[in-house]
Write a structure and sequence with these properties.
alpha/beta
Length: about 550
């Protein structure tokens, strides 16, 4: 069992504990216990159990106090929040899928040596916990958040189509016309980091509690964007990296003109579009190119974006507009999402008027973002629980392939949905792979971005060394392009370094995020990644130097200081 399915959500009906037992608080929408529940086994907070989820084998766990931001699934059957030993995941599990640990230990561990190393480690972990705690009965997960407002902040300030979104939000809300005055003292001008790493300036103080463990960062990042101020305290927006102000749609049109001139024909004109209605969430640089390729190939597309203005030009191109994510999901047979990170995906799925609220029997939800494995399996569980079908389909490629319709699609999950999406995948990409179970798409995408991040770091170091040694960087790049190391990454990023311009084809902050997620995945399977760990620190430093919104190749500026 590689990970358990986690259902993250905005709180609605929270659980309370009384005399060691779990009960609902009677909030609206929370089903009350019916008489049939009297026949269910007697489970209480702190009980050690064997828990079974979907197609996974029974796994050792402990019933723990639910986290405030995790919503209990709808239904009348008794459900408990379980912490899983070994994987350190959490999930809601129905009582009929639970068995008491000690009474069923002999049966569950019979032939366990043939069931996998991870299950053996999980059993070792629960036995170690029993020895360490002795008669003490724990009722809280070791990863229970101390401050849930830090994990899921309440006031989003950003458009999450290609930028991180902070916390719970009304998905149909728009940003105010005039920014509010920031709390506290005016911030100094310059760049602040947006995720979990702090700037290098020692004198700068941060408000709030210290960040949690690495495991918590993986599952619940809490990026915070700060406003700069001028004299008088009026907030102003931070300038974009390298003064790049191009329109996503203008960039798409220029790519299409270039392709038409190069090929002499309209690209992908021979695709036969599916007769199913298609929804698309997220109109950033990547999403714009992808949705325009769907429209140009004859697909019937409905769009939604947190910033409504980004929908206008797409609507003129032939798309319809939904007023909320829930409305879009209800309208469309297949819904695609392309957002910046795990928190943004959780917001559009679990938020008010989100995808979970609009999901009905037989609808398909396809996420094409790059997120952590825990988030993607949790989303799959939430969609499936409402009768929907789920496919993860992260992509390999940046802005240029997205505009050209040349992405590589890495799909996993429901194979029937994969087949139904073929015309859409042909419009957006040059090849689509089906990789089996949900989670495999996220895993292979992280491995690919790990390799790309390390190669970029090595190229930046080589170019910096060449300059310091008095060598001609252009000649070095030409030699690289003629040899076995030749690749689009070497050529494109090398030219960016020589030109000293770094428009965000793949923003550096996302490359740093993906290396962090790859390191977390490696830690789970106990695979050492010394080179990646070093590269991650280099990208963190570059981001703290103010290059987070620039292309990943801007890591050269930090290395060559």
């Amino acid at each position: 069992m590689e990970e358990q399915k986690v259902v993250d959500s905005i709180p609605n009906d929270l659980e309370q504990k009384e005399n060691g037992e779990i009960k609902t608080n009677g909030a609206p929408g929370t089903p009350k216990k019916d008489k049939q529940d009297s026949a269910t086994p007697d489970f209480k907070l702190g009980d050690l159990v064997w828990a079974k989820l979907s197609s996974f084998q029974p796994w050792p766990g402990r019933i723990v106090q639910p986290w405030d931001h995790v919503k209990k699934p709808a239904g009348k059957k008794a459900t408990f929040f379980v912490y899983f030993f070994g994987t350190e995941d959490h999930a809601w599990v129905r009582a009929d899928n639970l068995k008491h640990y000690f009474e069923n230990k002999a049966a569950m561990t019979k032939g366990v040596k043939g069931k996998g190393v991870k299950l053996l480690k999980a059993i070792d972990a629960i036995e170690s916990s029993i020895r360490d705690q002795k008669d003490k009965k724990l009722t809280v997960s070791p990863y229970h958040p101390e401050d849930e407002d830090e994990i899921v902040p309440k006031k989003p300030t950003k458009d999450y189509t290609r930028e991180p979104l902070s916390g719970k939000s009304k998905l149909n809300s728009t940003r105010p016309d005039t920014p509010k005055k920031p709390r506290g003292r005016p911030a100094k001008s310059g760049r602040d980091d947006e995720e979990d790493e702090k700037p290098l300036k020692a004198a700068q103080k941060k408000r709030g509690k210290p960040k949690g463990t690495d495991a918590m960062k993986l599952s619940f990042p809490s990026p915070k964007r700060k406003l700069h101020t001028v004299i008088g305290g009026s907030p102003v927006k931070r300038p974009k990296a390298d003064n790049v102000t191009f329109s996503s749609l203008s960039l798409y049109n220029s790519f299409q003109t270039h392709l038409a001139e190069r090929s002499g024909a309209v690209p992908k004109a021979d695709i036969k579009p599916t007769d199913k209605t298609v929804g698309f969430i997220g109109l950033g640089l990547m999403g714009t190119g992808m949705v325009m390729n769907l429209i140009k190939t004859g697909h019937h597309v409905t769009v939604w974006n947190r910033t409504p203005e980004k929908c206008e030009e797409i609507i003129k191109a032939g798309a319809a507009k939904a007023e909320s994510v829930a409305e879009l999901v209800k309208r469309c047979d297949i819904t695609f999402s392309m957002v910046s990170d795990s928190e943004a995906l959780r917001a559009i799925v679990y938020g008010e008027n989100g995808a979970a609220a609009g999901m009905t029997e037989g609808k398909a939800f396809v996420d094409m973002s790059t997120v952590d494995i825990g988030t993607i399996t949790g989303v799959e569980a939430a969609i499936s629980a409402r009768g929907g079908r789920f496919l993860e389909a992260p992509v390999s490629g940046s802005v240029s392939p997205a505009m050209e319709g040349a992405l590589i699609i890495l799909a996993a999950g429901n194979q029937q949905v994969f087949e139904e999406c073929q015309s859409c995948f042909q419009a957006m990409g040059k090849k689509a792979f089906f990789l089996g179970d949900v989670g495999n798409g996220a895993r292979i995408k992280l491995v690919l971005n790990l390799i790309g991040g390390n190669v970029m770091c090595a190229l930046a170091e080589g170019m910096a060394l060449a300059e310091k040694a008095g060598l001609n960087q252009s000649i070095l790049l030409e030699i690289l392009n003629l040899g076995s190391l030749s690749s689009p990454l070497i050529s494109g990023k090398g030219n960016a370094i020589i030109a000293g311009k770094f428009p965000p084809a793949f923003p550096l902050k996302y490359q740093q995020k993906d290396l962090r997620l790859a390191l977390a995945m490696a830690d789970q399977v106990e695979q050492p990644l010394p080179l990646t760990a070093a590269a991650h620190e280099v990208y963190k430093r570059a981001k703290n130097h103010g290059f987070g919104d620039s292309d990943m190749s801007a890591v050269y500026r930090s290395i060559n200081k």
